[in-house]
Sequence to fold (166 residues):
Amino acid sequence: MESLAIWFANTLGEYVSREVVIFIISMIPILELRGGLLVASLLDVSIIKAIPLCIAGNIIPIPFILLFIKKIFKWMKNFKIFRGLIEKLENRAMSKSDSIKKGEFWGLALFVGIPLPGTGAWTGSLIAALLDIDIKKAVLAELLGVAIATIIMAIVSYGLLGALIG
Fold:
């Protein structure tokens, strides 16, 4: 993830400000807030500026995924070229859904909040949509998860990483 985040930072950094770079990185699946805060630290963006930008970038996709992903996937499955990819994404998301099924709200919040590979707001939103979790409950759980991820990644990116680099 780190090398992907740095590639995006270097590529986008030629065209937009550091702040816009971390905002965009925070919106990208896989990278999300985790990559945004990591890149913000590496680009010497203050934690006070970075946190709101990363949170905003990470939460903007949530309602769109929750509301529209099932319809988009259904439409895309009509095309042979996309069918295999969509089924793979659905199966991958559902294979990670056990922890969310058990405790719905807290399972989703922790799934989004604990920064492990394959977790985060994008996958959490996809799973919540596929499990038909109430949208209000899903949004609140994911906002809590983003807050948890923010605390963890701020410590890692600005605390531990800052101590190792600085």
Remarks:
- Residues 61-149 form one domain.
- The two ends are 21 Å apart (CA to CA).
